[in-house]
Task: inverse folding
């Protein structure tokens, strides 16, 4: 007798449930304030039982962090223009465009407001993207700021403007953040 190896099914019910729950979160955030998000409301919208949602995510905060991590992973492509200035200008413009989307803003505000992990879920991939841009320039022999300095000089103003000021950041304004950052290097 041979032993059968158990392989997870790609797609399958688990992926369908995750997609339905993520979609339900987005729809509910577009319709109602974040405070109205509850596991039973999300489950009902997704067409699954609330215990399924509790078992997989445990809380609204954990679910929002998962949705944000999924949403903010890979949504902005790391450019390779051949220069640090070009890469950072294109990247900041793309991030500003993404942050101007009302659905993105609603998800960010809800996720950040849900608990300490929320901010990280909204920014972790952006930090990694900046790190990749900076490391590529370092490998080319260029002078670069630290990732932390780039986060403070680029993401800080972009996220502040998007989340707190209510003023959309134009691509031109965002690209203008690059020169002062690099002048300090």
Result:
């Amino acid at each position: 007798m041979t032993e059968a190896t158990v392989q997870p099914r790609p797609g399958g019910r688990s992926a369908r449930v995750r997609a339905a729950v993520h979609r339900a979160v987005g729809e509910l955030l577009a319709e109602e304030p974040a405070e109205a998000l509850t596991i039973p409301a999300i489950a009902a919208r997704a067409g699954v039982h609330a215990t399924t949602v509790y078992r997989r995510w445990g809380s609204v905060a954990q679910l929002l962090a998962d949705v944000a991590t999924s949403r903010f992973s890979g949504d902005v492509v790391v450019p390779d223009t051949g220069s640090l200035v070009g890469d950072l200008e294109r990247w900041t413009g793309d991030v500003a465009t993404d942050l101007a989307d009302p659905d993105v803003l609603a998800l960010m505000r809800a996720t950040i407001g849900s608990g300490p992990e929320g901010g990280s879920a909204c920014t972790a991939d952006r930090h990694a993207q900046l790190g990749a841009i900076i490391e590529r320039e370092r490998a080319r022999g260029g002078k670069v700021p630290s990732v932390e300095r780039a986060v403070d000089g680029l993401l800080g103003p972009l996220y502040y403007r998007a989340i707190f000021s209510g003023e959309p950041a134009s691509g031109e304004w965002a690209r203008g953040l690059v020169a002062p950052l690099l002048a300090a290097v």
Q: What stands out?
A: Confidence is low (pLDDT under 50) at residues 1-9.
